[in-house]
Each structure stands twice: as C-alpha cells, then as structure tokens.
Amino acid sequence: MTPNVDIEIILNEYSNNTTMKSIIGVVQKYLENIIVRPNSVINIDEEGISVLNNSVKTIIVGEIPNYNKSFVDFKHLKVNWFVYKLDTDGPVEQNEDDGDDAQTTISTQITLPSVTLLNMWENLYFDNNIKQNLLKYAETMMEFSDKGVDNNVISCNRVFLLHGPPGTGKTSLCKALAQKLTIRMGNRFSSGILIEINSHSLFSRWFSESGKLVNKMFSRINDFVENRNILVCVLIDEVESLAHARNQCLSGTEPSDSIRVVNALLTQIDQIKRHPNVLIFATSNMTESIDLAFVDRADIKQYLDMPSVQAIYKVYHSCINELIKAKIIQDLILEPIEHLMNDQPHSAETQQLLDLCKKSLGLSGRSLRKIPFLAHALYLNGSFSNLNEFLTAMDKAVEKEIWERSYFAGLKQENK
Ligand SMILES: Nc1ncnc2c1ncn2[C@@H]1O[C@H](COP(=O)(O)OP(=O)(O)OP(=O)(O)O)[C@@H](O)[C@H]1O
Fold first, then answer.
1. The domain containing residue 119 runs over which residues?
2. Quick one: 68 and 157 in the same domain?
3. What one-character DSSP code corresponds to residue 33?
4. Strands 92-97 and 103-112, how do they pair?
5. Is there a single domain that holds both residue 116 and residue 178?
6. In a shared domain, residues 9 and 54
7. What is this model's ipTM?
8. Does the C-beta of 323 come closer than 6 Å to ligand 1?
9. Does 369 sit in the ligand 1 pocket, CB within 6 Å?
10. pLDDT tens figures, 365-388
C-alpha cells in the first residue's frame, strides 16, 4: 500500500476562493524542488518565497508512520491536501454576574481552525502513536454517525477522557485535536467551534444559581449544534470537580443543590452528544476521583504519562531551533532523535542533548518547556551563546527544577 502524507496549505487572510482551487499545483511544484521533512512547518512569510508569498502563509507537513526516509519522497507517497484559512478572532468569553459585583467566566469559545491554535498539534510529542490514534477514533465516530450506524447496536458516546499527571499536555491535546479534526473534515464541515467549559468556576460558588447557569450555557451550545455544517467540540477541563461537588454533597458539607448541578451537566451532555456534529473532550489529573458517571460515558480513556527520553528530545530540539531562529543560540545542526535511535554517528552536542534528556526524565512537558527560558535567564551572561554553553546552562536549569520538585514533594509529605 502506498504510504500517505497530509499536507496543509494555510492561506493568507485575503486570499480568495479561486486561490483555494489553483494553489495545490503551485505548492506541489515548489515542494518537489526543495527538501521537505515529515512533521515540519514551513513559514512562507518568513522565508519570503515570492511565488507563494502573496497567497500562502504556512505549509504544514504531517507525520508519516513507519516511514524510513528523512525527507518526503513525493514520487512514492500519496499526498492528502488540505487548504484553509485561519480564524483570527481569538477566544470569546461567556461571563456571568457572580452576585458580588464581579464577573466570572463560565466558558470560552474559539472558532476553528484558529490562529491561536496554529502549530499546537505539531508541537506535542507522545509515544505510541497516541495523537494518530485519537484522530482515527474521532474520524471513525464521525463516519459512523454520518453513515447512520445505530448507536444501540454499536455503542459510541462521542466522549473522550484524557487523564494523567499535571502538565502532560491533556488540555493542549484536546484543543489541538479539535483544530485538526476541523481541518481534516473540511469537506464535511465549513468550520468548527471549541467551547471550553470552566467547570471549576461552575462548581465553586453559589450552587443554587449554577443549575440555571448550566442550562443557559447549553442553550447557547445548542444554537451551534443545530447548524450541521459546524463541528462542535466541547471541552470540560478538570472534570474531577464534578465528583468533588457530588462528594461534598454526600458528606453534607455542601447543599444538595450541588448534586442537581452535576446532574444538570450530565443530562445536558447526554442530550447534545446524540448530535452527529458534536464531540466532547474531558481532562483530569486526578484519575481516582473522577465521577464514575462520567467515566462510564467516555468511549476513549487515554492516559498521558510523563514524557519519555524520545519525547523530551523532541521538545528540547524544538525549543533550541526556535532560539536559533531568534538568533539567541549559534546556528548548529542537532541530529533528529530518529538518527540516534538507529545508532548512527552523531555530534558531541547531540550526545550532550541526549544526556540532558535522560537527566530530565520525570519532568512534565510543562516543566521541560520552561528549561530553555530558565537557562538563558539564570545561567548565561550574554544575549548570544554557542550551543555547548547553552546546553550546559540547560543542565543547571534541569538540576534546579528537579531540586525544587523534590523540595515541594517533601513539603507535601510533611503536611500529610
Ligand atoms: N508531551 C508534550 N509535548 C510537548 N509539549 C508538552 C507536552 N506535554 C505538555 N506540554 C506543554 O506543557 C504545557 C502545559 O500543557 P497542558 O496545559 O496541556 O497540560 P495539562 O496536562 O492539561 O495540565 P494540567 O493537568 O495542569 O491542567 C503546554 O505548553 C504544552 O505545550
């Protein structure tokens, strides 16, 4: 079977529909004449490529599973093209009066594909094809409902639960997945919307009002759901706060209103997930305390662990490339991780980075992305350094981060 590669062409805001149709041929010709790496982003704006500059902003080349070449060989690959424009409006908050003359945000909406989520998918690194599998699950769900597969025969709830330790990319992955799906299903949906429910603020105050708020919020969501040309993705972050609210009620520390709020939310979810254009994502970093009623509703329960050495390497590699681009680090090529996996000869700096990755095992993705910043701020004097100096500074920043983590873990233990 011929392997596939997905290539996304992101058009400039002012490109018209004629450009959409004619651009693929022009981009294909351009790409065939340069070296294109799988899982890479080409920013046309920055590169100043005159043939594409007027209409194309960015080209995103997807991963190619089980592919052993380091460049995209167009002669032996089937290309799936996706041409689109990004929404530039950014998030819109839904605020409600909290009774103390202040406003609380109960949900946030983003129109998809959004400029705020550009490259998020490409910058998340997990092992075991987690991203590809989630994409396939979601595409299968949509295909089954489009083809009218009976839900009573083949059960499919359209609910994803991503759980795991803090800072492992759960929220980012849900958002990036919603964006990717909108792009992949561009022939089925004209656009998408991501509605992020702030469950924490919904359950933390004035429970007697919250039941009404849940219903109000969902009546807005239903307005979107009715338009079958829009893919509606609902994200419930920190879903464990549902269980927390219910348990507090059972132990008598909160009024029984809280249980009504949890039930109102679950009922509303049950109603909207019947629609063929809806997907529900939930995240939790406390797996053991997620409400079982919610766990039961999830078709896909994906655990996201702390990054492996390979994933850490990719995170650091992307950070270093960014700083090379910004002329903060001297331009020097670091071999990709695939090169190291095949035991090929590599530079001293690449080995230094690999050792640093091994030392960083146990840090979350969130901590890893802070390391280059800490290295530059705390352990370097000038504004420009060579790669070796920078990696040495990163090493010190990793030691500091590990020390701080064990210090706070110790405090937590003492307070138990
Ligand atoms: N596997 C990963 N690869 C690359 N970046 C990652 C990874 N995991 C986390 N990050 C980065 O860490 C930051 C935090 O991620 P995010 O908020 O999605 O984590 P989370 O699991 O939802 O955290 P929390 O449970 O605390 O809400 C983001 O900037 C994200 O890009």
1. 92-303
2. no
3. T
4. antiparallel
5. yes
6. yes
7. 0.98
8. no
9. yes
10. 999 999 999 999 999 887 777 889
